[in-house]
Write a structure and sequence with these properties.
38% helix, 373 residues, 8-stranded parallel sheet, alpha/beta, 14 helices
Length: 373
């Protein structure tokens, strides 16, 4: 049995968390999606909601093995033990494998109870607003973890220090034999954000409903002024999100965020280009956005406001667009660019990750059994 500790809800924008959960269950390994663990202390209103909350998330009550867990961020050692006991009382008693996407000291006593601990790092702690306690704990978590997956090379190098790592994008096979061979060489693995297969099949529209489409969550590292500037040029912009910007415009339309990747890919087909309006800041310089590979897989033109992303991936910088004519020229230039190397499909990466996790546990059990013969 596998417990996956998440800082995202199952119904939010689909990351590797949700994909891995579905893949493990589909492969016959019972996995539970435990949501949503806090790394920062909530406001008073949020705290009241946590205390009054139910065990299962109301919005996800029809999704088997998705559990809403009441919990607290780390405060002090004795409170962390109390929190771990509180969390343990809300989940299945089995302590086989824990996969955590959260470096939470508040869960450390609970993590110590598992036979196998896997840390899947999708955030750069140095650029997050985590409490110092959690930033320090991440080093301990790495030491205790049997496997460490990370989607960012700079972050991975910081975590692994001088230990070897393997880039799973370079591995062409995902079978058990390959996984066992990799486990004999390293416990650190660089993993690009998995790209669901439907993104490779996005169609180019004959008559697009929108000029630009952004999909994903709305957060402080998006450049809202760029949305407004381009909308004022007459460009039709769609936001596929569960959130809303703090602005409105007749040329900006909101569409529901689809959990199903096939439906999300169909939505992307309605736009002439994909919009990535990220600010130029230290945080965006340190991340590996999952949608980066998804938009590359789609083959659609990409308009981006982040200079670093434009340089790395050959996207068109949105700041050169000052009229609809310039937008049409940007689309034409994007289409004429050489084809980019396609990312690995999610089906391949998830199979390889799953085999690494399951076989690391099997190898560990075999070693444990041999010691007691």
């Amino acid at each position: 049995m596998i417990h996956i500790f998440n800082d995202t809800t199952y119904g939010s924008y689909q990351h590797v968390n949700q994909m891995l959960f579905r893949h493990l269950n589909g492969a016959g390994y019972p996995a539970f999606y435990l949501q949503r663990f806090k790394l920062n202390f909530p406001s008073i209103c949020r705290l009241r909601g946590l205390i009054k909350g139910n065990k299962r998330a109301v919005a996800q009550s029809d999704v088997p093995r998705v559990i809403e867990v009441r919990n607290s961020p780390s405060i002090c050692d004795w409170f962390d033990r109390l929190n771990s006991n509180w969390v343990a009382s809300q989940i299945e008693k089995s302590r086989d494998i824990a996969i955590t996407f959260v470096p939470s000291l508040a869960l450390a006593p609970l993590f110590d109870q598992y036979h196998r601990l896997v840390y899947y790092c999708v955030h750069d702690s140095d650029n997050q607003t985590y409490p110092v306690r959690n930033k320090r704990y991440e080093k301990r978590l790495v030491q205790k973890s049997a496997l460490i997956f990370c989607d960012n090379l700079l972050v991975l190098k910081r975590l692994c220090a001088k230990e070897p790592y393997i880039n799973l994008a370079d591995i062409s096979h995902s079978d058990t034999q390959t996984a066992v061979a990799l486990l004999s060489k390293a416990r650190f693995f660089l993993v690009p954000p998995p790209t669901p297969d439907p993104f490779f099949e996005v169609k180019a529209p004959l008559n697009s409903d929108f000029d630009l489409m952004y999909f994903g969550s709305v957060h402080k590292d998006l450049d809202e002024t760029e949305f407004l500037r381009l909308a004022n040029l007459g460009l039709r912009i769609a936001l596929v999100t569960a959130d809303r910007l703090a602005l409105s415009h007749r040329n900006i339309k909101y569409l529901p965020l689809e959990v199903d990747s096939s439906k999300l890919a169909q939505q992307l087909s309605r736009s002439a280009a994909i919009f990535m309006p990220y600010r130029d800041n230290n945080f965006n310089a340190s991340i590996s956005p999952g949608k980066l590979n998804q938009v590359i897989a789609s083959g659609k033109p990409v308009i981006c406001s982040n200079r670093l992303f434009c340089q790395r991936s050959g996207f068109v910088n949105s700041r050169v667009i000052d009229s609809r004519e310039k937008f049409q020229e940007a689309i034409a230039s994007a289409v004429m660019q050489p084809e980019r190397a396609l990312p690995s499909r999610a089906s391949h990466l998830l199979q390889l990750i799953s085999n690494l996790i399951v076989n690391s546990a099997a190898i560990s059990e075999g070693k444990h059994a041999s010691k007691h013969r």
